[in-house]
Please model this.
Amino acid sequence: MTHNNYIYIAVMALVSYAIRILPLTLIRKPIKNRFIQSFLYYVPYVTLAVMTFPAIIQATQSPAAGAVALVVGIAAAWFGASLFQVAAGCCAVVFVLEFFI
Amino acid sequence: MESKQRLLEPQLVQTGRADQFSRKVFCDGMRDGVPIALGYFAVSFSLGIAARKAGFTPFQGFLVSLLNNASAGEYAAFALIMANATYFEVAVITLIANARYLLMSCALAQRFAPETPFWHRLLIGYDVTDELFGITIARPGNLNPYYTYGAILLAAPAWACGTALGIIAGNLLPLRVVSALSVALYGMFLAIIIPPARKDRIVAVLVVISFALSFLCSYLPGISALSEGTRTILLTVAISGAAAVLFPVRQEENEDDA
Model:
C-alpha cells in the first residue's frame, strides 16, 4: 500500500499539536499519579538516547568517525557547550576525520 | 545573595498584567531566539537529509517542520515512513518521541497569569520545544507570551527553511559533507540529554542503559528485523516504565513550588 505524504504530515502535525496544547488548555492541573509523572520524566532521556546510539555510527560513511563524534558530543555537552556548539562540533569531527579514514 | 536579589527583583517590580505587549519584552525574546534559530538551522539541515530519504519534497519538508517543530519526533517519523509505515505507526512514534513536550506544557500552564487571554495558550502551544521552553521558563514571574513570540518568530522559520534546504542540498552536496552534516541532529540530542544526566545520576545510568540496549537490539536476531521506529517505541516504553517503577521521582520535583 502506498501512503500519501500529506496525510503523514497531517497525522504528525495533529499529534504534535495535541500533545502540547492539551496540558495548556484542558488538563490545567498538575499530574498527580506518581507512576505517570515518573514515566513522563524519564521518557525524553530514554527516547533520545535510544535514537542516538547506534544510529550516529550508522549515519556517517565511516562508523569510526561517528563514534568519535558521539564521544566529542557527550564531552562538549557535559562541559556546558550550547546546542549549536555541540551540533557543529560533531559535524566538524566527522568532516575532518573522514579525510583520513 | 546579591545575585539572588537581582533574580527576584523583576518579580517584585512586576505590576499589573504580565501578558501586556511591550516592545522591550518582544525584542528580548528575539535576542534570546538568535542562538536558538542558528542551532535549529544547522540541525534541521540534517533533518532534511533524512526527509529526502523518506521521499519528501522540499515543500513537504518545510511543511512538516513548520507544523511540528520537533526534532526527534520528525526524525523518528521519517525513519518509519522510509519503511512505508502505516499512519497509525507514525502517530504512535510522534506521540512517544514528543511526549516530553506534554510535561513542558504542564509546567508552562502553571506560569500563565489567570487573566491572560485564552488564545495565547493556543499560540504558545504551537512551538513548545526543549530550547524555547528553556528560555521561557527561565524568566521570573508570570509568563509574558510576547517574549516567547519574539523567539518563535526567528526559531520556527529557521527550523522550517533549514529542513527544506537540507532536502535540496542533500542532492547537491558531496557525500562527505552530507555524512558530516547528518550527525548534527544527534549532537542536538546529546545537548538535550547530557546536561541533566550530569545532574541526576539515575538519568545518567538510564542514558547508558538506553545506548546499550538500543545497540543490542539493532543486532539481535528477531528484534533487529523490526523497523528502527518500532524498536524506539518498544525500548522507550520498556526502559522508562521500568525506571518509573524502580526510581519514582520525588513528588515535590514537578509540583508547584510556590
User: Anything to note?
Assistant: Chain A has a mean pLDDT of 90.
